[in-house]
Amino acid sequence: MTTPAIRxxxxxxxxxxxxxxxxxxxxxxxxxxxxFLGPNGAGKSTTMRVLTTFLPASSGYAWVAGFDVMYQSxxxxxxxxxxxxxxxxxxxxRVGEYLSYRARLKGVERTGRTAKLDGVMERCRIKxxxxxxxxxxxxxxxxxxxxxxxxxxxxxxxxxxxxxxGLDPIQIQQTLDTIKALGGRHTVLLSTHIxxxxxxxxxxxxxxxxxxxRFDDTLRSINDREAVLQxxxxxxxxxxxxxxxxxxxVAAVEARPIEADLTAFDIRTKDxxxxxxxxxxxxxxxxxxxxxxxxxxxxxxxxxxxxxxxxDEPAAAPADAPPAPAPDSAPTVVA
Amino acid sequence: xxxxxxxxxNPPAAALAPxxxxxxxxxxxxxxxxxxxxxxxxxxxxxxxxxxVVVANDAVGPRWVGKGGGFLFAAVGLALMLYHAARDGxxxxxRVYGMLAALxxxxxxxxxxxxxxxxxxPTSGVSKVVGYNLLPWGVGFGLLSLLFAIPFARHETDPxxxxxxxxxxxxxxxxxxxxxxxxxxxxxxxMAGRGIALxxxxxxxxxxxxxxxxxxxxxxxxxxxxxxxxxxxxxxxxFGRSAxxxxxxxxxxxxxxxxxxxxxxxxxxxxxxxxxxxxxxxxAVFAKRLPVWAKGAFALVGLAGVAVLxxxxxxxxxxxxxxxxxxxxxGVILMGLGAVYLAVALGICSDDQFVTLxxxxxxxxxxxxxxxxxxxxxxxxxxxxxxxxxxxxxRFGQAQQPMQEPxxxxxxxxxxxxxxxxxxxxxxxxxxxxxxxxxxxLEVLLTAPVNEPPIVLSKFLATWVFFLITWLPAGLFxxxxxxxxxxxxxxxxxxxxxxxxAAQGLxxxxxxxxxxxxxxxxxxxxxxxxxxxxxxxxxxxxxxxxVSVGLPAFVQTVIGRMSFIHMWEEALAxxxxxxDTLVFASLxxxxxxxxxxxxxxxxxx
Lengths: 335, 605
Hints:
Structural class of chain A: alpha/beta
CATH superfamily of the largest domain in chain A: P-loop containing nucleotide triphosphate hydrolases
Oligomer: heterodimer
Order of helices and strands of chain B: HHHHHHHHHHHHHHHHHHHHHHH
CATH class of the largest domain in chain A: Alpha Beta
Radius of gyration of chain B: 29 Å
Number of domains of chain A: 2
């Protein structure tokens, strides 16, 4: 078992009476790309500040690259590249100057430093603005400079706090591409509240709300969950529902009226076969036209919404395969 | 066609989307430089006008616009032309300025080499002397040549010309910097005046060179490194040549009282010196991260010092002839210049975190308006003080009355300089840590592998150096007075004033830095620092009993001891109050310690 790149154990952080982080624990293996999701004020930035040794924890432990953040803070900082939420830069310096200053500060070797800086600027696409004052840069370019700064010393662990906040859609895509290319050699913990970004880039996701971890699993496992059949059919609602429940493949049905005689159904099947064609044929044979039949996979958004809205549920451990739900029970998120 | 609802476990590898087209940055239009060109032409006109005025005054006699006015026109004209040269990168324009730089260089060489006053007869019938025009014309033209060569090198895109300009900067800089020091070693009298000017000009050329090349490796790095080596070597040699012959000449008798028995204090001082050199040598043993040559240098210097001191303490009559005076002025200037070269080279080459931080902090004063504003304000205030000082001198001179010593007292100890220092310190220190806290860059700084002490010390050192730079014009005005008057002038009160000011600066800047660490708001930091400065002023007022607050006499004496204005008086009278210097210096250290601790408190909460 290799040393985890990041290991957090029972971390607690209070700002006076405010409990920002309330007993969280998670691990990140070397080379993983982990998304740290949560609503605003959930404790993401605080956790990152503790991990980068800027703030001390109120209690609990944290190790980065095997070093304790409290007692081996210097070693931790030598191995971490941090991009804070508001990218603070010195407005009177130029891009090239600033990165060269940060490289020296982080102890990048003198021989080959210029080539290394050029390479990082190339990867972050800031080479064109090398000579511009930092105060004159747009938000997108500031974020890229901050990202270049975090990547400068080639740290094994990168902690990025909302790296795409304030960027336009194309810049977001470019930044995510850059971050995705980092995975494997570097460990990346990136925090955001935009789910599509996490889906594009990360392998694992940790959802935190009100200072507690609510969900900690790979995206794969979410995808592997049962899919739900969505049917919209025209006909008397009660009869439709009864007919659907009688089907042998169907385990549970949930109805939602749209119009007077148009109802939407969320159907859970007993097995994993795709029953769309069979069901739609049967419905049509009974004389109820099917307006829509769709297979909706469990998405991160569903998980996120349900997890965040259920604030009283404690964090649950992930299971390997979702067990079959009891028939006719209301669909629940199988944790 | 999938028949299960499970997603495909082996999806076909999605081709990486081609990188989207680069959408930024905005197009940069080469702006038509009409305004800059207008300014340049106005500058050229003023320059010619100024030259005509000066020549007319010399040739025909005093005109309506005096020679001073002519020089003023010419200076303003040159400044405007420099602005144009910096803004306009058009090929014709920059090549013209490049040629102007070359012309100035030729004139500088001519002024240095041509004998005697070129126009007119030398005074008192002596024959014409080579290098008569070196100061001010040679150095002046050299400076102009540098100032016009810099924008030329920056804008020039043709590789041949660019290399030519950059290598020209290197060649001239190396020649001047090293040559003047070597000449100064051979002939110490050369240093005061011409030597300093040529050495500093050479340093400026070299600085311009290093700004145009990559200094982390290659030739740029080696040049900067060589500069440091030369500086260190010259400084050490000057120090040795000043100290060693005197030590060896005096021999063991230096440790004895006139009666012949051992003087305990002198023995202690000698042992202290031996311990200091042994400490230097021990750096070679204890400093792990220094490269081998640095350790060797430290060891060599330390051991040599200990050896010389030992020899001088025990063996008499090593030197029998009295050593020639070297220390003042040549030795001091050589040591100072060597130290400056070493500092510049360290700033360029060293990767040490403290050096990097200090360099950035010092540069930030010159990258944003605040440095220029404070410097400009101080120059204006000191200029006003200078004018009133000249007026006082002339009044006393016309009335044929002697002035009370110290004469320069009214120059420094007046209302304006005191107000200046009261306002300057908060202005310089208010933004030091407050701004970093407010923008969040302190977070980025502290999450790099940097500890709090280098951060605090680097800000302190940079601000302290800038503080001393703002007080330099006062000394320059006095030196200009001496050059104009042509009479000898005792520099020592001025030097001891600067030492006193430096020690006070340690306390003031330290206090300002401490208040800056306490708050995110710059105004609050500035106000707190101003209150602190008012307290120091109150010490003066209590001592002169302007403010009798009803305090017991003992307390009044103690507080009065802290009066910085009285310390200025003592320094200007020629006595350096060592005790007060140490008090202020230790106050500075105390505030620095507090600042480091305040920054560390975030780790306790």
